[in-house]
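Section 3.1: Structural characterization of target chains.
Under the original work plan, the team committed to producing a structural model for every single-chain target entering the pipeline before any wet-lab resources were allocated. The record below documents one such target. The sequence was received from the expression subgroup and is listed exactly as submitted; it comprises 748 residues.
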Amino acid sequence: MSEEYHDIGASIEVSADGLAIPRARALLGAIGKHRDFSVVRLLTRSNPRCEIIVVDVETDQVPPNNAPGIKYRERLALSVPETPRSLVEVRALRKTFPTLAHQNHVIDGGGPSLCLYFEPPISVARTWTPQTFLRRIQWWLEKTAKGELHPADQPVEQLFFASPFELVLPWNFAELRKNEQQRFALDSRGKRPDGGLTFFLHPIRSDQSPPTTSAACIELLLPAIVHGRIEREPVTLGELSEMFAKRGANLFAPLKATLAHRVGPAGIPIANDEPFTLFLLHVPILRTTGATTPDGITHRAFIVDGGALKLGADIGALHIHDKRYFNVPLIGSTDTPTAWQSTPLMPVDVLRENNRTLAQQQSGIANEGPDAVLIGAGSLGSAMLNLWSRSGWGRWTVIDKDHVKPHNLSRHTGYLQHVGQLKTATVAELHEAAIRDGTIVPVFGDACDFANEAILTPLKKAALVVDASTTLEYPRQASATDEVGRHISTFITPTGNSAVLLAEDSHREIRVRDLEAQYYRALIQENWGQNHLRGNLSTFWSGAGCRDISVVMPYSRITAHASTLAEQIPLAATQPDALIRIWDRNPESGAIAVRDISTHSARCLRYGNLHLYIDSGVEDQLRELRTASLPNETGGVLLGYYDFNIAAVIVVCGLPAPPDSKSSVTGFERGTAGLVEAVNEATRRTAGVVGYVGEWHSHPPGHPALQSRHDILQLCHLAFGMADDGLPALQLIVGEGDLQIYQAMAIT
């Protein structure tokens, strides 16, 4: 029995010399040299302008009697458009050619259009040649015949082509839909230049009058269908129902039942009907016939100009009596309504507002992050929070006492409309504008005000507190309390070229206060610390704080470091150990050097109302200096700083003996050569924080760190010297097996 082929209408037969489109002539030449292709006829068409080469193609790798129904020899029409970047269309002309996946929808009935490429036309055109095109046709026929064209790891085909119209659902739409009485408003922001249009569905509060754009929402989960050819968009409700019926799914029955269910026994007044109806369809897609588990779900929406209750009457689910809709069938009515079939539809793609869970998936965030507090919503804090918000990491309470000023906008995530608004409210608003799930709680106030329950409560509940306050006060005060969560403090240096991270260990045995001193020690003792804090304005955190208008720094440096810190802080939060890490960025090349500073546990000594903190790193350093000088004694000055806000003195390090010091087995007399310069350099490197706090010396072998008569006299002398500044004096002694610190305060 001879094959029947689709007719190619509105075309004129031509000779080979009659082909004028360069691609058509090149393709004809390639066909003439290919053993598997033979020309049947040549045609030309004027609307749209194209030239058509009808061929018979033989594909040796097509199995006989294959399940899809592809034959060893197929007749195809290769339609070459005049536009160079448009793809050559391939139409299967055999009337019994099967309807399969990876076929383009056609409306002229001229045979299925083979979808040969996954890439967009402009990408295909980049490497397209007539020879590779012919091989691609045979590849499509072979893979389709073997059932390999759609790999098992490739998602199932979508049901519809993309629409220029979109519908954005609320992030919590599923929760809202649990209330069957929930009403929605349908809104749009005007057409785009490409003709596209985006609609937004907003819930209407029960106490809110329905707007003229309110819409009834009909949501249907249809029976599963097997994936295949992508469908042309139906333009009427009847076409939509017919399309599903051809693929084994009944739309009419569940639609009728759903519309009837909307009306109770008392009926609904006609005036209460919505002006629009939104159909939201969920269609499970099976990969193969007989499969029991869907391989995906297609979500599609259709907007109808008219209310759901009117449609219910048109479809026979409701009837009108005394200006009310009822779902009780009219007695004696046997008519099958058909008016609903001509109801026009506007097809729209279904999108959802981003929420925290979706943001995590899109960002590849496996760890959802802790319940956390951010101290400081300034330049660095707001930039990091913006990155964490968009990736869905953490549930945040933000504490800040400042508001947005005009100059802040050069280095803040806020905009002109936020000037005068609290910074906490600004970052919460910006978060909600991007991720609608309300995970940022703004708290206005001084983070140091632990007497305020609004401040202390979230700090106590938080698993993590990120300090971006650019102050010395908060991290030191937080270190003095056991009630708050683990702290990570971070800041950018005054030039904007370096970022610093100080992370407490998970048990808070090493606190930010201790890490701060160890960071200073590295600045003093390492070559890279020489200009690390240059450009400070008094204290390094205040100087680095971008809320000070006199700081000159481009926002690019803030965001560069914020990006690094936004990635590194979540990693540090999952590690149990304390961490001091510095990123030095070269603004000319963009290169970044990373420095890790070893961390040490600290101990606290109490002298009346004053707490002295010294870490094991200082003690180890001084013991090493003692060992290096044995059998002689040695010594030098102690560097550190006082903070009477927390009633503390923190020892940072000890300087080695000046070169003019006198050292023997029985005594030590510290010299002065270069000492003033060394102390001043330490103060400069630490932005004025670290200075002289006392003296240290060692005892010879076999002697503990007990004060001798000479040591007591020295401490008294130091106390009177420090009394000029109202400060106590410290004396540290390193003995054979111990280390002791003595403190004295002159009474004047």
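DSSP finds 18 helices and 35 strands in the chain.
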